[in-house]
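Appendix B. Worked example

We walk through a single record from start to finish. Start with the input: the chain for Lipoprotein, Hyalangium minutum, length 190.
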Amino acid sequence: MRSASLSRLLTAACTVAMLGACNGNSGGTGGPGGDGNPNTNTPKSPPPQALQGQWLNGTISPLWFWDENSQMVQNGGGTAAYFVFKPDGSYEEFLYASFTSGGSCRYLSWSSTEGTATFEDGTFHIYPTKGRSKYSDCTHGSDFDKSLSADELKKAQKVYYWKFQAQADGTSQLMMGPNETSLSVFQKAP
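Next comes the structure step. The output line below is what the pipeline stores for this chain.
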């Protein structure tokens, strides 16, 4: 279940990234119209104290190996989602995916957004005011590295579900995801 919901989360991020690639807009530095001035009129509310801080889910392989099929050095890839929830109601989100297909083609997708968030019991809604996406593959014809346009920022608004789940040892762990049935474990970053 953990990898399936993380997969959905990363698929959504990659979709936003790919939509940005299709419009041909290299953008500015974020914010509406890409003018570098983020929209500060987005809703926000402080997160519950237990949710404040930095949270991480995923695994990125640090191992490299020789691939006999491609005759290239490869690594196992991985996925990661990283959130920062600040006391003033602002947030940052980073999503990363890397994998190799067919033994020789490496795909990398990375996106980040920041902005404001509203928090309710069991859900939070993000309102990106600035964002960036990168994508590359072995053909390099689809590669891009761009700031998100105002339309892309609006499409990147999302609702996430969250809860703290009690563990057998008496501790609790944060569970987050795109719906109530697809929650992944997030660890508090040191």
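Two observations about the output. Residues 2-28+44-61+74-188 form one domain. The chain has two helices and eleven strands.
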